[in-house]
């Protein structure tokens, strides 16, 4: 690919690209591979990889007839047009002339080189198929498609009826037409909580049962976005933590995409962050917002952690909430963070945020893990003292004071204790500072559906500043 299409394959592969091409290279004529479901971010070489895969299997003669399927015929036509431009490139003419030349009739007329069909001199054929016009049993002469690519199948605003219709079209009009050795590639980003891609990831789809799932792979792992002023003094959403998952979509490019697309669109298109099913008790709240620069002076502040004891993929998330209170008793929610991380990673985040905002309290809900959290906290403090990246910490003589709370010490169930905080939301006594507010609001709106860690951390922050500060039941010094 690098030799034939240097402009398309200009960046080193991420592991997901390596896995993808290993699947493509293992396609053998006469053998049915397991379907590959690739859930990649927008701008993560998703469609480009699918288009190049079509060229590759044509060049290797491992597949002869491909259907390129999209949600609409127009989308499918555009992908086939791109593949046509790939096939007609000078390098393809040199290395694979029979694949680069159009198939001609005995009279010298082109036999299918148009928007909806490509036919080459080698006999390789690609048809574009839109789910909106898909027909049953299409074929070239007596040949059935031996590879089907599904790309851009889901739309953001698909209704449940539309999704059902698409599934029916795929399972009754498209997949049954394939050859016995049919290879299936489904490539998409998650843009809808009930989409076909979501059903395939969650193992809810009743088709492609033996599929291999790659992802979901976000553009940035562990992304934290905060509202800050840029070099020109403009207030923007800035990526302050995280690791790009591919060199071709670097952190700097992701930052530019946030500026261009908007933060919400970036999270949906590149991070696979789709709306969760609503939980109930916060659904009626219209959250109040303000900018950080408009906050009043604070009289107290704290960082609270609701931890998970492991960092496995199946674990609960770690939740960190930074809150402050003014002299009128108004709560300002300054920073929210919820990710699958190690307990040490969550504590480190909490301590650094306490230093950033000048707060003297870091609290941990210790129902899980019991007495291990104080030594864990002290260990992280010792590590930060030795970390040359934080000279301010090296010079300080006072770390934030460790506090702990146990939900079993008179606080009731998760829903019961959250009801008190809900009342303050209803009376407008809690304000979300723009930056990471959407993470918190998403957690509250799904409550009491899991993951619950950030909602719990926000409860402890609210409780400490309004009722617990000063040594109430459940606190330890």
Describe, in plain words, how this protein is organized in 3D:
Helix 1 runs parallel beside helix 2. It is elongated and about 80 Å long. The chain starts with 14 loop residues before the first helix and ends in a 9-residue tail after the last helix. Strand 3 and strand 4 form a beta hairpin. With 477 residues, it is of the alpha/beta class. The chain has an 8-stranded mixed beta sheet with strand order 3-4-5-2-6-7-1-8. The protein has a 7-stranded mixed beta sheet with strand order 11-17-14-13-12-15-16, sandwiched between helices. Strands 9-10 form a two-stranded antiparallel sheet. It folds into 3 domains: 203 residues, P-loop containing nucleotide triphosphate hydrolases (Rossmann fold), CATH 3.40.50.300; 57 residues, no CATH class; 188 residues, Nucleotidyltransferase, domain 5, CATH 3.30.420. It has 15 helices and 17 strands.
